[in-house]
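Exam prep: given the inputs below (a chain plus NAI), describe the expected output before reading on.
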Amino acid sequence: MADYDYDVLVIGAGPGGYVAAIRAAQLGLKTACAEGRETLGGTCLNVGCIPSKALLHASEYFEAAKEGGAMAKMGIKVTPELDLPTMQGQRIDAVKGLTGGIEFLFKKNKVDWLKGYAQFKDAHSVEVAGRTVTAKNIVIATGSSVTPLPGVEIDNAGGVVVDSTGALELASVPKKMVVIGGGVIGLELGSVWRRLGAEVTVVEFLDQLLPGMDGDVRKEAAKIFKKQGMALKLGTKVTGVTVEGQGAKVTVEPAKGGDAEVIEADVVLVSIGRRPNTEGLGLASIGLELNARGQIETDHDFATKVDGVWAIGDVIPGPMLAHKAEDEGIAVAENIAGLTGIVNHDVIPGVVYTQPEFAGVGLTEEAAKERGAIKVGKFPMLANSRAKTNHEPDGFVKVIADAETDRVLGVWCIASVAGTMIAQAAQAMEFGATSEDIAYTCHAHPTHSEAIKEAAMAVTGKPIHI
Ligand code: FAD
Ligand code: NAI
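Solution:
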């Protein structure tokens, strides 16, 4: 057998790659991870999940403290003053702490960090920073980057037309912000700057926000964001963006055709999706082809068509989510080690971290109906004692179950803590629970999670509190 430098070489140290590398090392495999960024942690820790949550959390406090905000409703009167450099400082500190933590974990687990971008030479060797490194198994975990909008140039340093990375780093609050794309990034980062004082207009090509989520959730999302003061231009396409001085003019027109309109903005955020990172990897040299969406296809154990080459995370099909990438990272390492690593792609929760949060797991009502007969139970957060007491009336929980077997097919929540609530739904579905199983599980009172129990009770028409 050939002699390799490593048993496993992972390309990319995002949540997919760094987790795969640590798990492989834990399983006794000699492991290296190539990463071209200055810090480990990938998109998620550097410019994604973590910095966006740092600003979402801080801006929530700011909004709660505003006149007529949540704090005033509870008898706490303050006049908030925005100190944006400090707010941005704590974002930077959060990133520093967590990316440094991954470096510590690499050292602890004896994972070698190969600093630089890797390119395949053949299926068992890559070049990193001018050095050739060989491995018996190579895992591609190169993640994704922003999908550009044709004809619109992103210039994060200029601070006018930006992507999510630029929108995280703004040095002042824009007076007017146009968000192109009413998906997860647009709504999360649009919410941050709206709370801090920007007038935000979201331009979405489709008739509703948040594609992929349940229909009821999408409709409610539009109502909630409008109520919060966001201007929504649904069914609208952007036909051009021109930068003029310190601002931009965004030309839009109805997606189905009609009169054009120009919206002025100080900042334009382009958030129309992300695409897999495969350029420059030298995939042609190992005979690995991409699918029509530019992704690397794998079989269920994350092996590609090329022997010894595996792939996980945003670069393969499925939702582009950190926890999906992490679970695939564990599974691929276990498969390489000869164990059985599995990810149940039917049960991957998704959360939008606005306020309220929007979360779901499993099938939407629309998809479930296509599959067969279903029963649906719904419960409003307004009737949940804790949400009502906390002045958080928006939202609902919806449980979708198979009409015949009662097995839970999907759960959707809009609530202040929907992201936390959805975990129990995912666990129940993973164990093949019925709506009756959830309805008869004792839930602590008073908690938002009781709304999941009541929605499950509503599947058979018997909730208590409505
Ligand atoms: P990535 O995290 O993209 O990491 C890939 C790494 O590979 C990068 O560091 C890159 O530098 C490196 N790389 C690429 N090519 C090479 C090469 N040739 N050689 C060496 N290194 C290479 N998901 C959630 O679940 N929750 C959230 O709250 C959330 N918030 C987000 C907010 C924003 C603003 C963005 C942009 C994304 C967010 N995501 C969130 C998505 C999440 O960040 C991704 O799904 C996740 O990071 C994917 O992990 P990954 O390991 O596949 O790739
Ligand atoms: P997205 O796919 O969530 O939303 C993009 C939106 O842009 C869609 O609604 C789409 O219809 C719209 N769109 C596409 N082209 C358009 C055009 N020309 N004009 C107007 N609208 C257009 O993508 P987004 O928000 O960029 O996020 C990328 C990925 O990052 C997400 O898919 C998600 O997986 C991940 N992410 C996850 C987060 C979380 O889990 N909380 C937070 C942020 C990102």
